[in-house]
Amino acid sequence: MLRILSLLSIAVLCAAQSNPAAKAARDWRQGREARILREYVELLSIPNVASDRDNIRKNADLIKSMLEKRGVAARLLEAPGANPAVYGEILKPGAQRTIVFYAHYDGQPLDPKEWTSPPFQPVLRDKPVDQGGKIIPFPADGKFDPEWRLYARSTGDDKAPVITITSALDAIRDAKLAFQSNIKFFFEGEEEAGSTNLKRILELHKNLLMADVWLICDGPVHQSRKQQLVFGARGVATVDVTVYGPKRELHSGHYGNWAPNPAMMLARLLASMKDDDGRVLVEDFYKGIEPLSATELRAIAEAPEYDAEIRKELWLGRSEGGGKRLIELYNVPSLNVRGMASARVGSGASNVVPATATATIDMRLVKGISPEQATARVIQHMKQQGYFVSDKEPDAAVRMAHPKVAWVQVREGGYRAERTSMDLPISRLVIATTESVRGAPVIKLPTSGGSVPIYMISEVLGTKTISVPIANHDNNQHSFNENIRLQNLWDGIELMAALLVM
After folding, report:
1. Domain for residue 341, yes or no?
2. Which of 55, 86, 346, 474 is 20 to 30 Å from the Cα of 97, by its Cα?
């Protein structure tokens, strides 16, 4: 049924679509899908974890050559100790506007053993893995079912914009369409590592990167498969928390009623931070939130009701948030336990009182709350629970001087939230262009659930940012078996073509 609805929606879209660049891109793409995917497979086959400097540079060099093949003046932007950013430009004499297209080519770290197929050996499947999808060869007749999926790391997050942009450039050239603006490209190589060097690169190349708007080509479309535009992103702060029991693991029979168990201590500490409905109990955690405008509140109200379908897809018997919709909760800060560890579990478990327990916590932030404020509030909460909080690994003297000790390590890479007004002329232009491609109103979100370093772009360059996602919502980004639905790629090519010449 989903496939039938998808094909029907494609037919309706084709009838309603009024954007000539998008139509030219669709006409060009049909019959060239195998060629597009072969080039994409080449890019996806290069490992792209940010710490793997050799392969990161191979990615950057390949993307640079892909741009140059399309006549784009391209080069690598360097900073000491940083992965290179790939930069390209198409300058239009007399242009009244400059647009930068942003994406990142690095991907999340991974464990290949978790993947159904090797993460850097892209494979085509006839449907999602969790629905029994099988590996299939590229069709000899070059005809691809739009519901097929391509599996590999970064298929959805975030190499998809690279291939859709380069394909759109091919289509524009084939149709002899003219650019109306100065077009620039910026592909980052450290986004999944926290963009720790992005600000320095922006500062070093500030004059080159100034623009009227940066289009952030990252993230998924709405869960209903409808196109959405996102005008802001949450910030992020991340901490590692370690609590302590005995100096070494102890026999649970001899010491289990006597030595404090750090796993239990950590569980109680984490449980004290949120209630059963997900509201954060840390004092002042929500203080300072910048309110939404009337336009932003209206956009949320107009977004489709889809939470019930998401709960069904994810096998959830309930959701948190006090009855608020997911789209509403994007606009308040969150506190999430990424993971916990203490001793061993399952068949490898020992009869011990663990020596330590550790959790990693991320806080997704909204405008009005800085990473420093959020982190300080969580640390103060730990102190209120009776913990002595250390910013370095505690020695014997510290651990013996306090009944409860926590070592808090603040991760690098935290940044603020940012939001662009939907009422600006450039915002209205992007909305109108996107709706002319899709043939229907688009969903407009004030803030995304995820974090993208657009605050740095706005702060350094004084420009606006708007996110233009293309990946399917179930692409498994940041996890194993990441994938892209082929129709999302095809839709992305059409959208990028329209935005490039708007």
Report:
1. yes
2. 86
Beta carbons of 157 and 472 less than 8 angstroms apart: no
361 with 410: CB under 8 angstroms?
A: no
pLDDT at 307 exceeding the cut of 70: yes
Residue 55 CA to residue 61 CA, distance in Å, equals 10
Is position 65 within any domain? yes
Based on the domain organization, do 405 and 439 belong to the same domain? Answer: no
318, part of any domain: no
pLDDT of residue 17: 66
- Domain containing 274 equals 235-292+331-410
The answer to whether residue 398 scores a pLDDT higher than 50 is yes
Choose among 199, 195, 160, 191: nearest CA to 490.
160
**Sign of the alpha-carbon dihedral angle for 274, 278, 279, 284:** positive
By residue count, the chain amounts to: 502
Nearest to 32 by CA among 138, 143, 150, 140: 143
Based on the fold, state whether residues 220 and 255 are members of the same structural domain. Answer: no
* Cα-to-chain-centroid distance, residue 421: 21
CATH number at residue 177: 3.40.630.10
Distance of CA 264 to the CA centre of its chain: 33
pTM above 0.85, yes or no: yes
Place of tokens 């975030």: 158
* pLDDT tens digits along 38-86: 999 999 999 999 999 999 999 999 999 999 999 999 999 999 999 999 9
Going by C-alpha positions, the residue among 487, 484, 470, 477 that lies closest to residue 155 is 484
Amino acid code (one letter) for 301: A
Helix (H, G, I), strand (E, B) or coil at 143: coil
- Cβ contact 151:483 at 8 Å: yes
What's the pLDDT at 194? 84
Q: End of a domain among 356, 375, 410?
A: 410
Beta bridge partners of 279: none
Identify whether residues 242 and 362 lie together within a single domain.
yes
From CA 159, how far away is CA 170, in angstroms rounded?
Answer: 17
CB 151 within 8 A of CB 121: no
% of the chain beyond a pLDDT of 70:
97
Sheet holding 85-90, edge to edge: 73-77, 85-90, 182-188, 98-104, 213-216, 464-467, 228-230, 443-445
Q: Is residue 405 domain-shared with residue 446, that is, in the same domain? A: no
186 and 44 within one domain: yes
Strands 98-104 and 182-188: parallel
Task: Tokens for 166, please give them.
Answer: 């380069």
Among 163-167, 271-275, 412-416, 480-484, the minimum mean pLDDT is found in 412-416
Residue 12 lies in a domain: yes
Kindly report the CATH number assigned to the domain that includes residue 372. 3.30.70.360
Number of domains in the chain: 2
Strands 213-216 and 464-467: parallel
